[in-house]
Design goal:
The protein is an alpha/beta fold. Helices cover 21% and strands 29% of the residues.
Amino acid sequence: MSSVTCQISISLDGFVAGPNQSPENPIGEGGMRLHEWAFATDTWRRQQGLDGGEHNADADVVDEATQGIGAYIMGRKMFGGGDGPWDETWRGWWGEDPPYHVPVFVLTHHSREPLAMEGGTTFTFVTDGIGSALEQARAAAGDGDVAVAGGASVVRQSLATGMLDELHLHIVPVILGAGERLLEDVGDPALEPVGVVASPAVTHVRYRVS
């Protein structure tokens, strides 16, 4: 059976988004600082159709994070578009060619028809819970892995229900002071560190979840 993995950036004080999140600023005040390490790499820029960037240890981590992924699961906030019934003119943050290029299953309380985009990405909106999303994602992924893309609520659910096989934390040396914590209300999962990669910008720790 394919693995279920999650990659997420986190501050030293345990936040994956800053305070005062909103549809206009979904990762909150200061939250963008958690992702600057990735934005600086040539791998991330190439995935977004951009030139430039630096090739370093962080670039290799970004490249590895996308290998072998057959489907993604994400939450409504990560897909965006605000709360409540869908405004179907909203088609995500990424333009007409999102960087996923495989099926993506979006957890939501409001139904919506699947949204086919360029490059092989299709967003399917799942209203009957994370277990259903995982079942559909596994079927779509085939021999590929399923990646839990975020946000924090979906990651917490995946930890609390025991569905994660690996959790990759990208620990950024910043203090946000407030915002959305990742590791609360997740029970007591056993996390075994199985790999560490460090750079001046971030420390990448890979945990096996058992």
